[in-house]
Amino acid sequence: MSTTTEQADDKENAETDKVKRPTKRRSDEGVGGHQRLTNSKAWSSASRNVSSDHSGKRLRFNPPHHAVSTPQTPRSKRVTTLNNHRKAMDAAKLGNTLLNCGQHHNALKHFNTAVELCPTFSSFYSGRCECYIGMGLYTDALAEAKQATEVDSKFVPGYQRQAECLLALGRPAEAVKAYTSALEQSGGSEELSKALKSAKEISQFQLVAERDLHKGTSRHIMFYVDKLMNMVPLCSKYKVMKAEILVKQGKYADALTIVEDVLDINKTADALYIHGLCLHYSGDEKGSQTKFNRALDLEPDHKLTLAFLEASCQLAARKEEGNVAFKSGEYEKAYDLYTEALTIDPENRLTNAKLYNNRAAVCVKLGRLNDAIQDCTQAIELDSSYVKAISRRATCYMETECFEEAIRDFETLCKLNPTPENEKLLREATQKQKMSMKTDFYKILGVERFATADEIKKAYRKLALKCHPDKHVGASEDEKIAMEKKFKAIGEAHKTLSDPVERAKYDEELSQSYLKDLMSDRTNAQTKVNVNTRSSGTPFKICNILPQGDLDVL
Question: In which ranges do the TPR repeats occur (predicted)?
């Protein structure tokens, strides 16, 4: 009986020792930094874990000495943690290898595994950041870099990566703050100091470029944008800014090339908006609408796209209202509607060219030929191959006797649209230009061929006073040039016709010129001129074959 009792006591003591020994190991290994059990609930859990063996027999539990603060993490959990750490390090090592080979997607998978196994290692988040940077996903990369510094607030590469991502996203002011944090944590670094200085310069350049772009003053914008693109080649925002400037300059093909390269890497609402503008201004309405819809899918509140679509609706409405007013004969109303439409979208070159041409048609109906010529010129500047505008301007030049200008327009017209009708118009303009070179001083002064010297003097004084340059100081440059030209012609006419000798020579030359032109036009009719002499021997007048009042008696 005593032997049995002693065996039972020995067994009990052995089992008790079995419990105490792990407790001692937990106390020693607690230095590793694992979480301690610090409350009564945790104590109860630890008590339950060691209060019974596999057979279910209740064992004695002696709590540790008060000098030992709390029980430590179980050995099995520590072993698991160490295994996870090893696996995480292996995954990160493989991720780095793939990252160096440019396999960013595959590398990302391994860094994801590393983060799942050990979420408290900042370097693993930095690895994921590098992967996203390699894929051009700077927003995701920025999030990973921020997570790295949240895990370890002294992790300098995390702040540095944040700054790099912010620069690539076109947010240099925030990049300055990130570089400042990196510099503070590093204790001073020449490389980071240079990077901080560069970020400040980029921030300043961007402020100037955005200010000028919004104001519409594109004189120096391209200089700053090119500077920004050279300093931050990976920033899509600056490429989109350059494309927008090119759109404003009417260089749609160049802008389209840039924005398509951006969209191949990163589809943003701004890039899709510029892409839509390029297509719209190039005449592809359907394609532009698709791009605008995609931009709104990404950002339903994208202000630029919404504003442009609203302006497009207003432009189409005003243009149609102007067309209706023109067809109804309400020319003043049509003029006002076309003028209003021209202010809605100044960059819409093709549509505005049509609006200028339509307004020129209104000016012709109102008898304002000079205004019509100016509107046609505006239309041609916006669209150099606009046949209707070129034709209308040429006709207006003919009406205002600007034959040299009309000839140039008809020559252009024949190149763009070589039809028999256009070639005929060119011949007529050339013929009239030749005739106009024979200056009719009588016509300039507005007097008859048989006007007296007093009548010529009165006509000259009246016209000279009317056309004197001092009377047109506030006129436009074109009007000033026209009046100066007319004033000189009036002076030349008066000088010739007020001198009897010069007038006689001029009359003879003018008569011969008219006779030559008239005979040339009547060659097909086989006109014969018979000059009979009277018995007194004086020559017979030939006024019967020329317009009455255009020739003096020979």
Answer: 88-121, 269-302, 315-348, 387-420
CB-side neighbour CA atoms (13 Å) of 76:
1
Whether the Cβ atoms of residue 503 and residue 496 lie closer than 8 Å to each other: yes
Weakly modelled stretches of the chain, pLDDT under 50: 1-71, 73, 77, 524-554
CA 373 to chain centre: 31
Structure letter (DSSP) for residue 346: T
Are the C-beta atoms of 175 and 163 separated by less than 8 Å?
A: yes
- Burial class, 152, CB count within 10 angstroms (exposed 0-12 / middle 13-18 / buried 19+): middle
| Cα radius of gyration rounded to whole Å, the chain | 46
- Please give the Cα distance from 239 to 254 (Å, whole number): 12
Position 344 scores a pLDDT of 93
What architecture does CATH give domain 441-505?
Orthogonal Bundle (1.10)
Q: 121 with 84: CB under 8 angstroms? A: no
Question: From the CB of residue 271, how many other CB atoms can be counted at a distance below 10 Å?
Answer: 27
**CATH fold for domain 323-328+337-436:** 1.25.40
Q: Are 203 and 228 spatial neighbours (Cβ–Cβ below 8 Å)?
A: no
Same CATH topology for 78-185 and 441-505? no
Q: Under DSSP, is residue 527 helix (H, G, I), strand (E, B) or coil?
A: coil
Residue pair 128/99 in contact by the 8 Å Cβ criterion: no
Contacts of residue 9, Cβ cutoff 8 Å, sequence gap at least 6: none
pLDDT in tens, 203-242: 999 999 988 887 765 667 888 999 999 999 989 999 999 9
pLDDT at 352: 94
| Listed residue (166, 183, 152, 153) closest to 232, CA to CA | 166
pLDDT (0 to 100) of residue 407: 94
* The pair of three-digit structure tokens given for residue 125, joined into one six-digit string: 């988040």
Distance, in Å, from the CA atom of 47 to the CA atom of 279, rounded to the nearest integer, reads 75
Nearest Cα neighbor of 379 from 342, 332, 344, 405 is 342
Q: Which fold has domain 78-185?
A: 1.25.40
**How many residues are recorded in the chain?**
554
Q: Is the pTM for the entire model greater than 0.85?
A: no
Determine the Cα angle at 436 with ends 433 and 442, to 5°.
170
Contact (Cβ atoms closer than 8 angstroms) between residue 489 and residue 444: yes
For residue 68, what is the DSSP state? S
pLDDT digits (tens, 9 = 90+) for 459-491: 999 988 888 888 877 777 777 777 888 888 899
**Cα–Cα nearest to 123, from 80, 89, 168, 162:** 89
| CA dist 375 → 298, 357, 425 (Å) | 41, 6, 21
